[in-house]
Amino acid sequence: MLALRLVRGSHPLVQLRRLLVAAAAAGVGFLLLCTLGYAVGHPAHSSASVLRLLWCALPIAATVQFAVAVARTDPATRPRPGLSSAGLGPARLTAIAAASTAVACTLGSLVALLLYLHLRGDITGLPFDGAAAGLLAADQPLPLAAALTLLAIVPVAGSVAAGLALRPRGARAPAPEGAARPVPTGLPWGVALVAAGLAVETYAGRGGGAGVALPGRFDGSPGGVLAGWVLTAAGLALAGPGLTHLCGRLLQTARPGAVRLLAGRVLMTEATRIGRPLGVVCAVLSGTLAAATLYGAAGGGTAFGPLTGLGAGVVMACTTATLLTAALESRQCRTHTAEALQRLGAPPTVLRTAALLRAGALTAVFLPLTWLIGELAALPLTA
């Protein structure tokens, strides 16, 4: 009940972020229900149904990541003076964050169920009654227990992930602002994973092998190529913090001024918070670029199906929204520094120029890298 009251009394922008989480959960829930409908309508194709269910893991992971990012920036879950005496200590605030995430995801799952039933024709009286009856196996009864189980995946996973991310970690000495932060250590491992993934893709693309049915037109991709794509994406996500830290160091080279020092120091300090979602975005964009290259090499033809487009849209939207939310969280953590600079008489253009420098440095490093990885990932299947 307390979590519901906090949700109702939040700022409109906070409510908007929660609604976006609900929308993402609705998209994933609809994909899961469509997978269930395919399994009910095609009982002889059990392997294809399992493969479709496995492909839903990517949208689920992206949605859970976005839900955790929103929970971290929720003002209602931040420790404030006086809350502990009122019974709202760190553990209770973590429980509230998990409950708020579960409420938003459950709302999206309910919307997905209502939309699915409406498009099947089970709910009438609205436009587009039964518009997708053939696609959703409306001639077969819907197993309610299986549907509810699938719809519970995102709320349960989101609430558990939010609780683990915000759980109290014991008493630790607070860091003074400006203190040196540990350098991210994932860059060498990320580079190694990217190299291994590209090598696996190249070997599998030349050697052929059993085809794996992918969404859209890619029905004969070797399984080794898919494994290479996974390794490459994991490598980019792991190398993101290290590359962000490197961008901060590069900004501070060659006799920098105050603005470059400020921009570089912020990137080094926030490398882990910003670098991880940035690496995930680069992994998604490189995979999208590789898929577009393969689709163009195949000569067009049949377009991607609506469910494939929905899944890809959910992944791209959630990863981008997670990056923007992480940037907002980083800005909130630097509020005291910005106020101190303003009290010292720093002009407002200093902060804006530093922000532009950070964005430019990250773009100059990550954009060419994303394009290069995408082209190399598609090369084994287009050569």
TrEMBL record:
Question: Would the keyword Methyltransferase turn up in this protein's UniProt record?
Answer: no
Keyword annotations of the record? Membrane, Transmembrane, Transmembrane helix
Say which domain of life the source belongs to. Bacteria
Q: Which residues cross the membrane?
A: 20-40, 52-72, 93-117, 144-166, 187-205, 225-246, 278-298, 304-328, 349-373
- For this entry, the protein name equals Uncharacterized protein
Q: Which organism is it from?
A: Streptomyces filamentosus
